[in-house]
Amino acid sequence: xxxxxxxxxxxxxxxxxxxxxxxxxxxxxxxxxxxxxxxxxxxxxxxxxxxxxxxxxxxxxxxxxxxxxxxxxxxxxxxxxxxxxxxxxxxxxxxxxxxxxxxxxxxxxxxxxx
Length: 114
Prior knowledge:
The protein is mostly helical.
């Protein structure tokens, strides 16, 4: 299995672990998403205001739950992320652009933990 496919599987498995069920009808309510964020990403010190904003951003249809489509990354989000990484706008992310992103992301995580 490729690294990318493995990463996608991990995202799906993590969603399933915290959601209220399996399959296409599985959703995350606010409590489940908060638990996922605190245990997998942000830690116990995550401000509830940030979680509220994140939940409301993901819950695009406003039904009070986040389904896998809402939780997953849309093509538009991938395009936006790619354009952010492609600093020189040449249509490819070269090694230095990638390293810059990874280093910035790691620094951001270290600062958040401090």
